[in-house]
Amino acid sequence: MLTPQNAGSLIQATIGSDGRLHIRYTGDTTIVRSLTFSLLDRNHRPIRMEIINREPAQASLRLTTKTEFYRVVIEYTSGQTETVEGSV
């Protein structure tokens, strides 16, 4: 049986020279139903969001002047979810 891992160690986020935040999930995608990548403002409200349910497990979101944080919500095939947040 496959089980979810510690999600925090499976997320890579980098700011590109193109003004975008590139976020990637490096875990086992066979146990993932969907990934929701979001940019958040200082109050942790979503500014932009992208839902991925196919390969590759990554998103490239254009940063705004209000972007302070990012969030990745991982929904596993078991129904369990994990949320990872980080500062930009």
What class would the helix/strand composition place it in? mainly beta
CATH structural fold name:
Immunoglobulin-like
Question: How many structural domains can be distinguished in the coordinates?
Answer: 1
Order of helices and strands: EEEEEEE
CATH class: Mainly Beta
Percent of sequence in beta strands? over 45%
CATH superfamily: Immunoglobulins
Shape: globular
Radius of gyration: 13 Å
* Uncertain parts: none
- Spatial ordering of strands, largest sheet: 4-3-6-7
The CATH architecture? Sandwich
Q: How far is the first residue's CA from the last residue's CA?
A: 35 Å
Number of helices: 0
User: Could you give a short account of the major beta sheet?
Assistant: 4 strands, antiparallel
> How many β-strand runs?
7
Helical content class: under 10%
Describe this structure in words.
By secondary structure, this protein is mostly beta strands. It has a single domain (7-87), classed as Immunoglobulins (Immunoglobulin-like, Sandwich). The chain has no helices and 7 strands. The model has no long low-confidence stretch (mean pLDDT 92).
